[in-house]
Amino acid sequence: MASRPEPDRIEPGALAPADQELLERVAARIVASRLEAPAILALESAKPVSLLAGQAMIFFEPLLQVLLPGPEVRRFAKLLERREILEQLAVLIETRAEAARAERRSARGPRPNSR
For the whole model, what pTM was predicted? Predict the structure, then answer.
């Protein structure tokens, strides 16, 4: 008898639009908080133990609900169990951080000549 797939199960290589949107929101929140360097360091460090990182997020869910609603914390934890997602999130953070830096530079205007 064939079993039904779990609703939270993430198929290898597939990323649902809702999951992509969740990653985008997490990346935006990290960049808005200017925490991109620690976040990227944490993501790079967690790659070898991505399964453990996902499980740790479930353990810390009550604290993480400040940033994301409960069901999203669980979904994000499932996503983090996949190494390719860690890399994708790091790239999203780097891209958004660079755009934010460029926007801040342009908002400041040209630098005065210091000669």
Answer: 0.72
